[in-house]
Amino acid sequence: MAIGRRGFLSAAAAAAAVPARPNIVYIMTDQQHAGMMSCTGNPWLQTPHMDALAKSGVRFELAYSGNPVCVPARTSMMTGRYPSYYGIRNNNVGKLPDSVLPTALGHVFRAGGYRTAFGGKTHWPRPMTAESIGFEYIARNERDELATECVKFLGQKQDKPFLLIASFINPHDICYMAIDAHTKAEGLPTALPKSVVERECVAAASRVPAGASVPPLPSNHGPTSSEPGAFTRLTGFRKHVRAHWSAEEWRLHRWTYCRLTEGVDAQIGRVLAAVDKNTVVIFASDHGDMDSAHGFEHKSLPYEESARVPFIVSWPGRVPAGKVDRKHLVGSTIDLFPTLCDFAGITPPAGLPGRSVRKLAGWRTDLVIECGDSRTLRTARYKYSIWEGPGTREMLIDMEKDPGEMRNLAGEAGMAATVAKLRTRLRAEIASRGDKYGESLFAAD
Question: How far apart are CA 62 and CA 170, in angstroms?
Answer without folding.
Answer: 22
